[in-house]
Amino acid sequence: MRFLDWFRGPAAIADKEALAEFVDSNAAFLVQKGIYEYARARAGHSAKGMFAEPTFIDAFNRARWQAYPLGLAMVGELVEGVLRGVGGANPREVGDWMRALVLSVFDSHPVPPTLGEQTWRELRADLSQRLQRISLHPPKRAMDIPETLAKAYFDLMPIHAKLRGRDFPTTHNYLKVTLCNVHDELTRRMDAAALSRLLAPTERLP
């Protein structure tokens, strides 16, 4: 990295590769940070020991990979909503374009050993269906996107259900706040003109 790069912000999102990386990194961050922070808070003073236990490590890895498609669905819906406002794009065409991009991100990851191929295929099919439904309704505010997925995400926490108490609202709020931050970053970094050209019919993803 050159010296002056330390004083520059993140690069603009102006092509498919940059947008795919944005979706991937933010989806992973969204779900993994929430799982990690929730487990650490629930474990309290025992957190250090718990995170060193092979059984918990396996449960954590399983939870984060199961939650990853939910993160892709939420971040993908957020990005799609923003792109619908770029250059008067057609909602259905934007939906098809984003569905292909998000699924390509999913497919860039090998099958997690902790899940297995069958489960991974099922998660992909579920993600594809979720993405298809996004274009059927108007864009949601970032804070409203987790509404239908928050419970499924919370149920994946690697903490016994009897120990979770009434923590769901806290997790739901975490998702809402984080997605608002993701929205702010996207609108700050995106090159609207370049993304508009990407959405032109000749530039659609295969």
3D structure, described in words:
The protein has helices at 16-43, 47-50, 54-83, 91-107, 117-134, 150-154, 168-189, 192-198. With 206 residues, it is mainly alpha-helical. The longest helix has 30 residues, at 54-83. The chain is globular and about 50 Å long.
Summarize the topology.
Elements lengths: L15 H28 L3 H4 L3 H30 L7 H17 L9 H18 L15 H5 L13 H22 L2 H7 L8
Structure summarized in a few sentences:
The protein has 206 residues and is mostly helical. It has helices at residues 16-43, 47-50, 54-83, 91-107, 117-134, 150-154, 168-189, 192-198.
Tag the structure with descriptive keywords.
206 residues; mainly alpha; 8 helices; globular; disordered C terminus
Give the helix level as a range of percent: 55-70%
Distance between the termini: 34 Å
Taking the sheet with the most strands, its summary is: none
Q: Would you report the number of β strands?
A: 0
- Overall form: globular
- SSE arrangement, N to C: HHHHHHHH
Give the radius of gyration.
18 Å
Average pLDDT, rounded to a whole number, is 87
User: What structural category characterises the helix and strand content?
Assistant: mainly alpha
Number of domains: 1
Question: Ranges with pLDDT <50 over ≥5 residues?
Answer: 3-7, 202-206
